[in-house]
Each structure stands twice: as structure tokens, then as C-alpha cells.
Write a structure and sequence with these properties.
This protein is of the alpha/beta class. It contains 4 helices and 5 strands; from the N terminus they run βαβαβαββα.
């Protein structure tokens, strides 16, 4: 199941995670973000035992969005050891994201 990340839980859930974490930076008014939603949910179900997968609403959590330079959404970032190791902008294929996670 996907995790709802926030400015408040970002450090504990993502930065300090011992698993790689995929974060989908999104907003409810963003059309392409609505397309990514079900893809992220499906991905979370498939890889949730090995990786953390979740979403961060940029409107409700502007601090971390700004800190990580999110200028366009959807913006997907993969974190490992507290650092961004891969980034994508725009709608992405689930298999591409899964493949990138498995490379880490």
C-alpha cells in the first residue's frame, strides 16, 4: 500500500529509511498526476515488501517540495540512504519505475 508522505514525516519515512523510497510529488488539480495515481498504487502493491512507495501532495507540503526543487509535477524521485538517486518528471510507466527501483 502506498504511503502518504508529508513535510512532518518526510525525514522519518524517507531520509532515515533503510529501504529505497519512491516519492511521487503531485497535486489534486494536476491532470497528469491523476494518471500517475493508480500507477503508484499498483507499484506500491507489487514492490511494497522491498521498497517504500508513496505520494506527497505539493500543495499541502510546500516545504519539502521546495527543498527538493520540485518545479513540475508529477515529479518522481527515488531516494536511497537519504539522497535522491533517480528523478523523473511527467507520467511514467509502472514497469520503468519498477525496473529503476530494482536496479538500486
Amino acid at each position: 500500500m502506498e504511503i502518504e508522505f508529508t513535510d512532518q514525516n518526510f525525514d522519518s519515512e524517507i531520509i532515515k529509511s533503510n529501504k529505497p523510497v519512491l516519492v511521487d510529488f503531485w497535486a489534486p488539480w494536476c491532470g497528469p498526476c491523476q494518471v500517475m495515481g493508480p500507477i503508484i498504487e499498483e507499484l506500491a502493491k507489487e514492490v511494497g515488501d522491498k521498497f517504500k512507495v508513496g505520494k506527497l501532495n505539493v500543495d499541502e507540503n510546500p516545504k519539502k517540495s521546495a527543498e527538493f526543487g520540485v518545479m513540475s509535477i508529477p515529479s518522481i524521485k527515488i531516494f536511497k540512504g537519504g539522497k535522491v538517486v533517480k528523478e523523473f518528471t511527467g507520467v511514467q510507466n509502472k514497469d520503468v519505475l519498477k525496473g529503476e527501483l530494482e536496479k538500486i
